[in-house]
Structures are given as C-alpha cells and as structure tokens.
Records
---
Amino acid sequence: VLHTKRTDALDGVIGGTEETTTGVMRLRAMAREGVLRYPIVAVNDADTKHLFDNRYGTGQSTIDGIIRATNFLLAGSKFVVAGYGWCGRGLASRARGAGAEVLITEVDPTKALEAVMDGFRVMSMNEAATIGDVFCTVTGNKNVLGKEHFEGMKNGAIICNSGHFNVEIDIPALEKMASSKRTTRSFVEEYSMKDGRKINLLGEGRLINLVSAEGHPPSVMDMSFADQALSVEYMVKNHQSLERTVYRVPADLDKRVARLKLESMGIKIDRLTPEQEEYLAGWSEGT
Ligand SMILES: NC(=O)c1ccc[n+]([C@@H]2O[C@H](COP(=O)([O-])OP(=O)(O)OC[C@H]3O[C@@H](n4cnc5c(N)ncnc54)[C@H](O)[C@@H]3O)[C@@H](O)[C@H]2O)c1
C-alpha cells in the first residue's frame, strides 16, 4: 500500500520487517527491479522463524484446522501435501503422526528427493489427484490444484490450502466444473460435479489454519515476534547505513532468540571451550 496507494505516507519511513515467505519473495522482486523504497529485514528467513513457526506452527495448526472443519479421521487416509518447503515438512510429519499415508508433490528436485528420503511417497499431482482423500497446498504458488486434478479426484475428496491465500486452488475452474454447490458444515462447501462426484472445498481456499482453527500456538509465535521486535530495534539503530534492499536477520540476533527460547523452557546447553573454539576455527590441527 505504501508503494502504491499511499506513497504520500512514505516520508519518514526508515525501514520495514517482513514476516512471511511470500512477502519476502515479493519484496526481493521489488528490490531486484529497483522499486523498493526502504530497507527490509526478512524476518521469515531467520532460522528461529521459518524452522519453527512455518514447520511446527503451520504443521500443527493446519491439521487442527482440517479436523475442526471436517471431523475427518486422518488415520488410514491418504493425505496429499503440495510443496515440501518448511510448512509442507511440518504438515507432512504431523499428518503422518496422525496415521495418514502421506503423499508429497513438488517441483524442486532436491526437496522432492528429501521427501523421498524422509520416507514419503512422492509423485506428480496428476497421479496424486486420483489417490488422495485430503489435499492441502502449502506452496506459495497459484493454481497448484486445477481442472485436470479435479477431474481425476475421488468422490468425497477434501481440498484445502494453508499456503499463500486463496489462489493455490483454482476455485474459478472448480466453480465452472460443478453443477451445484452447498454448504454442508461451517467452512465446508460441497461441489457436485456433473458426473456425480463431490469435492469438498474448505474455507473458500483461504488459509485453513486461520479459517477454522486459531493459527499457530503462542509458544511458537513468541519466537517470530521476538525476531520481529529485535529486527525493528536493529532497523532503528542501523537504518542510516542500510540500502533499499532485503537483508537477512543478523545471525547474532537469530541465535539470541534461540538462546532466550531455550532459557524460557529451562533448558541448558553446553558452550564451546576456548580450546574447542580454536580447534574449530583453525586448520593446523586435525588436517
Ligand atoms: N498458514 C500459515 O499460517 C503460514 C505460515 C507460514 C507461511 N505460510 C505460507 O505458506 C507458503 C509456503 O511457505 P514455506 O515457508 O513452506 O515456503 P518454502 O519456500 O519453504 O516452500 C514452498 C515449496 O513449494 C514448492 N512449490 C512451488 N510451486 C509448487 C507446485 N506447483 N507444486 C508443488 N510444489 C510447489 C517449492 O518448490 C517449495 O519447496 C508461503 O506462501 C507462506 O507465505 C503460511
């Protein structure tokens, strides 16, 4: 908004911080094109943010949202996760923990391989579409589930999204293919296909963990918000030397949040001795 509709309010803005994956991608694109008007700290890219909030937060709260909306029994079901990034990993591991057989779709070969070696079945969405009972997109991309997938889905399939708002599922295509739709429960819309199959769309394709559950628990958001607060402080202190681009959260700040979190959990860890520090930093010993 500051870059388009309210450029009049840009005066005096010294910088910004960005919470989420998609936001950081957009801001990086703006920096690349030279249109970013102030420096950004990419809070999402801090280890203490995406490794925890995206993975454990989204993982748990997405399952929570799907269950609250549907009361569906995950045990024994076939659960398709589109995207094996940080959110996808969390979601896949939680769905597996609930007894589902988890199928992964990816476009990145390394992530796909990682999913294979984590013990998941990996395949194209065209193939998964015919097998899955529940589908959840967490890619940050658009039209990840579309017409060709809806065509192959089983009767009663459940589709939802927990990634980047309501474009990950091609809802206009679903609307076109359906002969009618009705709301069967809060947050569940049942689309009747012309061949008689039903497909259940949850929460209008919006982030299901926010639609029908409560988002992430505070005990993981505390780390993200600590990163936010400390990044704002960093921006206030350093903005004069920063350029109009996207910066990572400084590593010492990131580690500080991890240390604070451990402390709040009453967990103590070891520290490197001076001898160990020297050994790790040097090259003359152990080569
Ligand atoms: N629901 C929430 O509360 C919540 C929380 C954090 C992040 N998010 C959002 O979730 C999305 C994913 O975040 P992330 O941190 O996991 O990102 P990420 O970049 O780690 O992972 C996204 C993955 O999706 C894959 N992908 C892209 N297009 C695909 C396609 N067509 N089919 C299959 N896979 C595809 C990418 O290769 C990547 O591995 C982002 O939009 C982010 O903003 C939501």
---
Amino acid sequence: MVDKITKETRSKIMASIHSKNTKPEVDLRKALWTRGFRYKIHYGEEKIDIAFPSRKVALFVDGCFWHGCPVHAHKPKSNQAYWLPKLKKNVQRDIATNELLKIEGWIVIRFWEHELDNMDRVIKTVTDVLCIR
Ligand SMILES: [Zn+2]
C-alpha cells in the first residue's frame, strides 16, 4: 500500500497526539481560571491536564479524533493499518491512566473536546465534583 502522507506530515500529526496545551484544554483552563478556580496543569506522572491535587480531582480534555469520541471519531479511510493501532493505543492509554489514578484515590473526569461547546455545563460538572470532595 502506498503511503500518501509525507514523513514530515506524519511526525507533525504524531506530535499533536501527545501535545499538551491543545486549544480545548486551554479553553477549559481559561474558563475555570476566570471563575476563580486554581489548579495545576500537566500534573504528576500521569500528566493530568488540569489537576486539583488537594482534592484529588483530575480533569482531562480529549480530542474527538485522537481519543475516539463516539460522536465524531470516524475511522480514517486511508492508511488504516497505520492509524487504527495508533488510535487504539491512545484509547488504551487513557483507560490505563484512569485506572492508575483511581487506585491512587483520584476522581477522574474526562471531557470530550465537543462537550466544551457547552462550557457552563462542563463548569457545573467540575463544581459539583469539587463540592463533594
Ligand atoms: Zn466529539
């Protein structure tokens, strides 16, 4: 099978999978900050996107494509042999991270990128969880 994307493009894409400070992540951080929440970013060994360490609440923002959102993640049509294992690995890593954090006593909340369209609802969820901790 002929590979249609260049090496350069591929490495850019791969870098973006693991990149921090993605737009949705920054959007959520700003929304929380302006409402007076204080948090740590890229926290701990698990590199929690947004962490409230004293309450052990961990927030992650997952890109719809890279993390397999049920609404928006359509399987790439070309280069499936290349992409499917990568995407699968991402999802597996997310699950492993969740489990590790739960064992350490954290509450883990993951938001899909598309859920941030309703930021008020996201903030309410975060507020509710912080209240019970
Ligand atoms: Zn989505």
